[in-house]
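Review form for a predicted model. The reviewer records the input and the model, then writes brief findings.
Reviewer: anonymous (R2)
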Amino acid sequence: QICNQHNAEAPILEQAFCRMAQTEPNLDHDISWFLLPSYWAKVVVALISFLCFANSYDGDFVFDDSEAIINNKDLRAETPLGDLWHHDFWGSKLSSNTSHKSYRPLTVLTFRINYLFAGGFYPVGFHVINIVLHCTISVLMVDVFSILLGGLQFTNKGRRLNLAPKTSLLAALLFAVHPVHTECVAGIVGRADLLCALFFLLSFLGYCKAFRENKEGHSFSVFWVLVSVLLGAIAMLCKEQGITILGLNAVFDALVVNKLNVLEFIQKLLRKDKLLENAVLLRKGLLFRITLLMSGGASILYIRWRIMGTGPPAFTEVDNPASFADSLFVRAINYNYYYSLNAWLLLCPWWLCFDWSMGCIPLIKSVSDWRIIALAALWFCLIGLSCQALCSEDSYKRRILTLGLGFLIIPFLPASNLFFRVGFVVAERVIYLPSIGYCILFTYGFSLLSKQAKKKKILAVAVLGILLINVMRCALRSSQWRSEEQLFRSALSVCPLNAKVHYNVGKNLADKGNQSAAIKYYREAVRLNPKYVHAMNNLGNILKERNELQEAEELLSLAVQIQPDFAAAWMNLGIVQNSLRRFEEAEQSYWTAIKHRKKYPDCYYNLGRLYADLNRHIDALNAWRNATVLKPEHSLAWNNMIILLDNTGNLAQAEAVGREALELIPNDHSLMFSLANVLGKSQKYKESEALFLKAIKANPNAASYHGNLAVLYHRWGNLDLAKKHYEVSLKLDPMAPGTKENYNLLRRKLEQLQKKGG
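Model under review:
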């Protein structure tokens, strides 16, 4: 047969032989839309997708970025590359019971490369890569949609034809500008979804290449099928959803390559029709290809399971309350309600939130809840579309609807709670891939409306309006992701019942020093979720600093009662008890914290302070030494050791500790200051002076640095310099203890010397 459809790359193809005949209607015939050559269509998609998210390029590290990037040791050069293959996305060992089991080593590897090239944690490079990835994916979507909407056909030279240039451009634009993608693009941890999507699409396009040398459907390239499986494995190493491409490739093979009628196939299967196997499965190699896909998928999943080492991750009730419901009915009805919310975010992505857990979506507990309407509407639509996909006499309609539903549902399955419990209620990032199915269905619906409409241009203008609104919404949402303050505050109006939203707003305010406002949000977080131990811990910390010790103790005691292994709360409780001079209880709290977190340098540091207050000097030194062993850069522990040894007259030991500390932390001015004091007392004036001056250069506004250097000069007999630094010290801090007295003594001495000289 000869194809004579309009093609974006060659306006009129005459006598172009197609490997697969197309007799179905073409969506492009029914819509009023832009017809651009393939190259320019991709340029337009790239530019518009860039425009949507460009303003996120200089954003901060926000929300989960802190744990996945800043606090993730796997990004640092000193961590062996091999560790990435044994750690989860957050840098924890996969064998650990606390691991989230999110195995994404290739994503972490790209973070590490970003970190090394930037020379540190500079977010611009991270954001730029995310934007480029989304633009690349959006460009690839032009080719993907041209296959899904127009079919897979090649010229006699093996060149793939774009038989749906207008609809593929529309669908790619819908994908590129969808606001629900903002979390993946503007949030750096969303790179997992972007990389997964990239290799997901490459796997699909690779699978399509298997049929490029196809002659009337009798042969195919095993090589490209295997490449597709490999790319699917790479996609899964970026994020777990990637494995679903193998199932979609099988669906595509059956529906598009073999033009299988699913309903007819099932009917023949039930009748045990012997001809079915030979005519469909074996003749075109479908069974063999599906066997390759299934074998590859099973092998990948087995290896993944072996690497994971233990069972599924342990999530808490606040992460996914429906999954902890005792009633199967409550679980099922809420899962379905979550599905309807995901569908609504695709249809109307206006209310977006960085986190949907912790009371943001209250559980449905009875059929009288009006929200039942939402899941009823979802299933009404899904069943209606499924019936059309199975039963329609129009083979083209069956194919489009089945592919649309397949790309909508199959990539979503890992997040559906059907196979295992997930650690979220709704997550915008997980519908990055399912939005492909939404774009197919939207475009098909638009073509049906255009076919019936008399004024097609009005309909086209309406779709352009939707695209424009989405572009503006993307730009607005991207700006909200630029900083934690904007991101967290944007969620208050969307999820006012979400305790985590109030907690994060409070934490952001506390980090900026606005403790009074932070207290308000922490209290609201605890009110919304009375078991929110992290909010209690942070609120207790602020109250402790404000010397409201009684309430701080009550909150921290409640936190450890709710979560007995909460090491940070135990340590903070010990600090409060120490301030209340209940030393035995404080010591017990510190040791309980260390019991639950063996490597806890800050707790050893606070334990050392307790022992120092009790004049248990040996115990204090041992505790601080433990802190420095666990964290060699723990400046406060080193300083306290030097000061305690200095105060107890062990100058030689204090000097040795000070020198050891400065070797590890050579630019720490507080250590320079402490060691300079020790050296001054040991009459090593020259070395002491050098350290004082170096400390002052690093921190010129420290009154004590100038004051103690003045004392050194005073002892050394360099009275003019002593006078100068006393005066600088008093200027910086007129109330500095001892400095005024020493300065007055020096002045009297200078006056006496002047009189003698006179």
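Findings: The first helix runs from residue 38 to 53.
Further findings: Residues 1-23 have pLDDT under 50 and may be disordered.
Recommendation: see findings above.
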